[in-house]
Amino acid sequence: MRAGWLAGWLAGGLAGWLAGWRAGGTSLEREREREREREREREREKREREREREREREREREREREIERERERERERERVL
């Protein structure tokens, strides 16, 4: 009788553990998933910073082009006079 009770209790515990594991995984798996999520977030932030740096470089190039156009207009005025 005790063996039957023990077998039932172990089977129930195993079924419960398995259901919980399937539902949420082990704490180690959850920690690994959180670490992967943090890594994805770091990569996303890195890409965003790089895009912002590229936008700033493009704005700087545009300012330089505008300065050069202004210089060209000045040279043209000087030639006309």
Automatic annotation (TrEMBL):
Region span, Disordered: 26-81
Compositionally biased residues, Basic and acidic residues: 28-81
Annotated keywords: Signal
Residues annotated as signal peptide: 1-15
Name under which the protein is recorded: Uncharacterized protein
Lineage, highest ranks first: Eukaryota, Metazoa, Spiralia, Lophotrochozoa, Mollusca
